[in-house]
Each structure stands twice: as C-alpha cells, then as structure tokens.
Amino acid sequence: MPFKHLFDIPSSITYLNTPGNGILPKSNRRWREERERRFFDLHGDLRDQQPAFIQSVREDIGKIFKACTTRVFCTPNFSFGYNVLLDRLPSSYKYLLLDEDYPSLNYPIVNRNLNYKTVKIDEHLEQNILKAIREYQPDVLLLSIVQYITGIKIDLAFIRQLKQDNPKLIIIADGTQFLGTEPFHFDQSGFDAVGTSGYKWLMAGFGNGFMLLSEHLTNLMNEELHDRPSPKEAMWASKSMLQTFFEPGHQDTLSHGTLQQSILFLQETGLENVQKHIHSISAFAHEELAKRNLLLPAVVGRSVRSSLINIQIAPKHYTDLTANDIKCFPRGTGIRIGLHLYNTHWDIEKLLGILDTYNIQGNYEI
Ligand SMILES: Cc1ncc(COP(=O)(O)O)c(C=O)c1O
C-alpha cells in the first residue's frame, strides 16, 4: 500500500533522514494550524483545558503501546524523562550500558558518578549482555532498542526471556529510534521503562515524548517515596507522586497534541501495516547494499535488523548526496539513512543509482 501521498514531500527530495527527525503527516500539520488558531482565540477556552487534554494524550499513548495510563508520563523529550527516572533510583545501583550508545543514555550515568560497566556492541550483542550480567551482576540494564549510529536492534524476544529469567533485573530502554516502526506491547515486553522523543519515527515534531513504566518499577519507586507528603493544594490533588517528578509543570498542548495526532494516524494506518511496509523496503535496501559490500559487518551477521542503515561510504560523499537532494546524515564510519512509511522502492533505487557513480566497494575507493 502506498503511503507517501499522506505526506508533503516535494518530488525532487528523497527524505532518508528519519533517524535525525521524521516528517509530520499532512493531516497532522493541518491539525496544528487549526489548533494554533483556536488556541489563541480569546472566545474559546482551549488554554484552560490543559490537564484534561494531556490526560487524553496519555490515554492514547497507553492504548497504542499497551500500557496502563497511570504508568504513562508525558515529557518534553526522551532525555528529560530518563534523567528524572535515574534520580528516582537508589544511587547504590550498578548499571550495565552498551558501548557507544546514545550519549543522552550513557552520560547521565557518568556525570552522576554511578557504578557501571559497558558491553561491546557487535553481532553477538545478546550473548555479550548475558555474559556481562553473569559476571557483573548489575541492578539495571540500559540500552537503546535501535542503535543511533549502526542501526543494530536488540532482539526483543531476548529481552522478554531475559526478564523472565531475571525478574529483579531492571531493564530500561530508549525507544526513540524504534517506536513508530512496528506494533509494541509494553506490558508484555520485559522492559521496566521505555522512554522516547516524538520527533523521529513517531513523526510528531519537537517538544514531546513520554516515559512508560512497568508495574514492578512503579511500585519500587513508590515504595521509596512512601513517607513523603502528597501535595496539599487543590490544583495538584489529582497528581500522583510520580507525576510530581515526571510532569512537574505545564505541558505544551500543541506539541503533545501533535504527538497524539501522530498516534491516531499510526493507529488508523495500523502499526502492523507500517511494519510490513518498512520491512519490505528495508529488506530490499539491505539486499542491494550487501551486494555492494556497503553494510557494517556486525549488521550483516544479524538476522534481527532495523530500518536505520549505516552505509559504509566515506562521509565526504555527504555533500554530493545533499546536492542530489538526498536527505541523510554522516554518522560513525559512514552515511546514515532511515526508511519509514513515506519511503518507497524508488527512493532506494535513486540512492543506489548515485552510490553506483562513486565507484566504491566497502569503504575503499576504487
Ligand atoms: C537513540 C536516541 N535516543 C534519544 C535521542 C534524542 O533524545 P532527546 O530528544 O532527548 O535529545 C536520539 C536522537 O538522535 C537517539 O538517537
């Protein structure tokens, strides 16, 4: 099923930069314009309906990603929610991180001077994690579901099994390069927390995100807070104690409303259809890039793959790709692309046509 017509993409542009930021559906942009107009109309009262509006956003997030609404927290981005979460965990905890994971994930462990060890990311990622858990016995495992440079995706069946075998291990994930690409059932995922920003694969622009918490982790954090008095003011009477941390102030309803519109769009499209489309075009891209020896060896060696692909050509080609209206980004040892709902086989053909003029094989110019 074609989806590109649901987005405003000029015919000259090949948009492959979703790992940087995604494109809003047309319907979403229309909603924003109308909302902005009504919001500032003094005859209306949208500005006074913030709590009820944000509650409806929480409900829609909970519905699509299968999490109880009381454990959904709206945040301005991934990093805000994640930093709040870390500060609610005992400082004695030991953390297991992945080498070269996104800095927003790893650096808050470093700057808090917490105890941690890192695991190498290669084609045997899951085995490396198991070995490190046996040896280091961490309290918390932290990882991005999809790595931002290489596109390496953790095997989600592995996470479910890991949690079953280690119920006390707290597993925290960054879903920013993942949520919006396939169906995801948070409460059955094995994760204790999944946070995200909305501006990439959720196609919701900047200034919105959320954090989902498991029942286990919610209870654990609430136990730590049990002796603190609840807010006494009537206007905060309905806030849960955890909300006073994750959602301490007023939220931007335009931005969170945009996220809500994207979620409704994904719901209507069907995340299983999104997955099917992405799978079809990224399988084609992987196959063609593998033929040209342009994939990372660690990616070639894995059956679990994402649609974030690091093409192993010298980053100097970025200028020429940009001149050809290919939107992508230099990252790590190559050029990063992402394939989403609005991309087509033709986008890949166009990219391959340009790559083929470079006369390259692997990272070696001929
Ligand atoms: C894996 C990952 N997590 C999170 C983010 C963004 O986090 P934030 O919006 O909090 O800066 C990015 C952005 O590139 C990312 O790649």
TrEMBL record:
GO molecular-function term, one example from the UniProt record: transaminase activity
UniProt keyword terms in alphabetical order: Aminotransferase, Pyridoxal phosphate, Transferase
KW Transferase (keyword) present: yes
Name of this protein: Aminotransferase class V-fold PLP-dependent enzyme
Domain Aminotransferase class V: 119-321
Origin superkingdom: Bacteria
Pfam short name (any one): Aminotran_5
Keyword Transferase: yes
InterPro entries named among the record's database cross-references: Aminotrans_V_dom (IPR000192), PyrdxlP-dep_Trfase (IPR015424), PyrdxlP-dep_Trfase_major (IPR015421), PyrdxlP-dep_Trfase_small (IPR015422)
